[in-house]
Each structure stands twice: as structure tokens, then as C-alpha cells.
Amino acid sequence: MKDVISALQHAVEESAATLGAPGASAPIQEVPDGKPGDYGTPVAFSLAKTLGRNPAAIAAEIVAATKLPPGVASASAVGPYINFRMDPSAFVRAVTTDLRAPTAERLKVVVEHTSVNPNKEAHVGHLRNIVLGDATARILKAVGHDVEVQNYIDDTGRQAAESIFAVTYFNARYLADGGRKYDHWLGELYVRLSAAKETDGEAIERGVTEVMHRLERGELRLEVERVLAAQLETYHSLGVDYDLLVWESDIVQGGLLERGLAVMEASPSVSRPTDGKFAGALVMDVSAFIPGLEEPQVVLVRSDGNAMYVAKDIGYQFWKAGIFEGLTFERFAVQPTGKPLYTSSPRGELHPDGRSFAHAGEIINVIDARQSHPQTIVRTALALSGTAAGRAAFDNSHHLAYEVVTLEGQAMSGRKGITLSIDEVAEEAARRARAVVQEKNPGLALIDQVARQVGIGALRFGMLKSEAKKVIDFRWEQALSLQGDSAPYVQYAHARACSILRAAAAEGVDVKAARAGADFALLGPLEVRLARVLRRYPEVVEGAAAALAPHLLAQYALDLATAWNSYYNHKDENGKPDTQVMRSGMGLREARLVLVDRVRTTLVAVLDLLGIAAPPEM
What we know:
Blueprint: H1 4-18, E1 29-30, E2 39-41, H2 43-51, H3 55-65, E3 72-78, E4 81-86, H4 88-97, E5 108-112, H5 124-142, E6 146-153, H6 158-169, H7 182-216, H8 221-237, E7 244-247, H9 248-253, H10 256-265, E8 270-271, E9 282-285, E10 297-301, H11 309-321, E11 329-334, E12 340-344, E13 362-368, H12 372-384, H13 388-395, E14 397-402, E15 405-407, H14 422-440, H15 447-464, E16 472-474, H16 476-479, H17 487-506, H18 511-517, H19 525-535, H20 537-547, H21 550-568, H22 588-609
Parallel strand pairs: 5-6, 5-13, 6-7, 7-12, 13-14, 15-16
Antiparallel strand pairs: 1-2, 2-4, 3-4, 8-9, 9-10, 11-12
């Protein structure tokens, strides 16, 4: 069945054409609660400018001329607005049985997120990157894209070198049976080393430098893998999976830096000045793409031959776009979901298990807003590469920038130890959730599992419900709230729907039987109001995918939970409940059960796209 709203829009536009306005657009919008009708259109306003006539008169003529499609009961002009009432039977039936799946033009999309330095435990500041990237990847998959999730491992950086050197410097030994994760243990040594620099700075600097050289040669990869494995345990506990780990040492040894620079040197926008302050350096003129810069010349390689960090990023981005190859791969691990995790490796092959990596039609880098300028430089390099793949990647590369997370109003610093680990927060969230669930449902089976799902859901939702451009100040009470605009509020709405369906099944009426016995003609405006919110689901998913904005889906989850709770608790004019599903008459009960099941499946779907579990009981 064609979507009734799309059919209605087409019918109104045909009527507009008969009035002398062919090609006019007639957007159909939900009517706010308390206003007459279910949907409406302001098309008469735009036609008034085109036709030079009174909009109220145009609205009346369109109402008279429009042949309403099935599912629309009536149309009326309210001044210059046109409002429509839906036929409950046809509309709710269509929403509960024929709701379309969200779609988009299929692309190979590479999403890079997490990329936490492998030197200590991940903290709540990293949590925003992790869940934002994970939710974005889930949403893009939902509209049909071929999504590849990459996690960049900076194994040659100073942070990793300092942590590894700290083990030797303090002659420390990790005891696996000590009850502490390796990344937490290593993080404490990292902080201690920072403090020790005040009295032994020169010796520490010599030691760290030597470790950095060894990391670049790939000699200490097993040490980095050890902390990475501990970090991955944290990420997996949040429900996050990856497709590929890309190691910086492999980028260096695989020649991606040199290949990227070779591509750039062929560009007319890249040069090696022979005089002036850039004499002997390789510089890129970005003025054509980034106007207004005080200094439009970006140094890629210094005059002493050392490449700038942005040059490595350019080589990596070129590889993602498929401008050249250079990396080989092998299996790294099997993730808790059973999904294989691959890694770049000098010992690997180009297509392990038949897999192909990179060659993206769209590239999304989830990196905090403080890196906006370097990310703009990397994207500009694609356009200046002089390659068709580079120009296409420029048009389809996105920096999904997000603002930082502060801790009780204070900027976090791993070096100073001003952080709060994800592991600690997750455990505390589960503990608090367990107390609430225990109070509400003391006999609940699998209470620890449900508490973990509720606690993790609260954390993830807290990081996703705000626009990425807004700073999040992590505060315990707000982050772990189980009330209001939170994941537990949505999860409870889902559990309520499951409870009704279980009660129906206990009476021998499962969803299949309900569909067979449903009389949708017995439904009314209350069901239409709830179905209107359900109908939005594919549009919201498509909008979130196009805008790379998971917060739109979080808001929709709250809207649907609120609409469902409002329906569930509705009372008639005498104050009596009038939507009690299991007390409804035959036919009406079944139709309402079908609607409840659509609420359930939609809440499951939207929570899953946010990476949040939907426990059937709470």
C-alpha cells in the first residue's frame, strides 16, 4: 500500500495544478495536539504568492477540488490552512502492517571512531566518541549502507611510549589476579610518571624517546596489544563492535605517508619554496578551499625532512578513499557478538576471508571539535590531490565533530589523573539501576542482567540525547537518571507493551491471532494519535542518517514512549480509563493488541539503533 501521507500530498499538488500552480509543493505536517485534524498543509500561503490571491480562498478551493486517497476521512479549510482527519481503520491498519523500512542510496561508508590512545583505561570523555560513532554506524546500516567501522590505534605516539616506559621505570609487575584490569593498572603508572618528571625529567625523556623509536619499528606491538585488549573489553561491554583496527605503525611501515605525499607533490597547490620562512619545506596552499586564513600555507614536511602529523592523517584518509592500497590484514579476535575483528598487519593479506577494506564512497571521522581545523586540512587535501577518487571523497567526507565532556565542570586530563573511567561509571550505573529495578519488581528473574542493560542504556542515552555540538558536563545524578528524558523511561515503555502482550498470550491471543481477529473499524482518534508517531519512524531514521545526528533518534524514542504512555493512561471525560487493551471488546481488543505490538517492535528498533537493550521485563 502506498503511504497514505505521500498519496495525500500528491492529491493536494494535483489540485494546486488545477488552480494554475503546476509543480507546487504541498508539505503535509502533523497538526499539533489540541488543533482540529490529524495532518495539515500550509500550501495555500505559497500559492497565494504565486497566484496573487487570498490564501483562505485558495485553501477552500483546494479542499473542494482534492480527491482524498484511502485512509483520509475528511478535509477542511481553517482559514488559510488545510487540515485532514484520518480514517482510523485504514490509517492504523496501514501503519501497523505496511510501514515502510527506512532507505537511502547504498554506499560503502567508513566510520572511524573511538581511537583512544592505547596507554590507559578509557574515560567518560571517550564515552561520547564511542557511543556517537557506534550509533551513527548503526543508523547508517539501518538505511542500507555498507558500513565499515574502523578504530585507529596510535601505537607510535608519546602517550603509549610513556605508559610502556613507566612499567620499566618503576620496575612494576602486573598481577592478573589482583582484581584490576590491565589498562587501569597501566594508567596509574602513566600518571605517576608524569609526576616523576619534575625530579627526573631528563632520564625519563631519554627512556620515552627510545621506546617511541621501538614502537615505530613495531618491536613493542605485543605490549600495546595487551592494553588494547583491556580497552576492547570495555567497549564490548557497551555493546560496541568494530570491523577493523588500523595501527599507526602499519601506516608508517606500509608507506601510506610516502604514497600520500607523492600524490600531493603532483598537485599544483603543493610546492617546495626555495626562499622565505617555508624554504625547503613541502607546503600546501589551501586558500582556494579555506578562505580567510591568516596563513593559507600548510606545512606537510618540514625543511628537516620530518613529516607533520597532518601528513600521516592525509595518507590514512587517501587510503580510506581507495586512492591507493598499502595495508594488509588478518583476523585479530572474535568479538562477544561472534563478529570477527580484523587488524592491519605486516603479516596479513589484502583480502582476508574474502573481505575488502576501505574504498569508501563516504568517510566519517568521529573526532572532537578541537580537531576541526586539522580535519578540514585533511579533507581539503582530498580535493587538491588531483585524483577523481580524491575529489569524490572530498565531497563525501565528513568530520562528525562533538564538543568535549567535562567532569563536574572541570576539564578532564589523563596525565593529571582528572578522569572517571567508563568501567567505574558502568558499574555504578548498574548498581543504581539494580536498586531501582529491585524496588519496582523484587521478583524479577535475571535482575543483574536487566540492571546492567538499564544502567548502560542510561549512560549511552545521556551521551546521545544532546546535539553533538553541545558540551556535556558529566554529573553523576544526571548521567545515571532513571527518570524523565532517559533510556530507562523508554525501556519501561517497552516493558509495559511486552506486559500487555504477555497477558494476551496467556489468554490464548498471540499477535498472529490478534491480526486475524482485529476489527480496525472500531478504533478512534486516540489510536490515530499514537499511530501518527509510529508512522514517523522511517523518516526519523533517514533524517538521522542524512544529518549524522543520532540525537534525532533519541528524541524520537522519547516522543514515542510519551505517546504510548499517554495512550495507556488515557481517561475519558468521566475520569475512567478508556484504553485498557485486555478489557476491550472482541475485535477492538485484537486491533489494539496489533497496535501495541507495533509500539513494541518500534521501541526495540529505535533503542537498538542507539545501542541500547530493550528488556521485556523491568
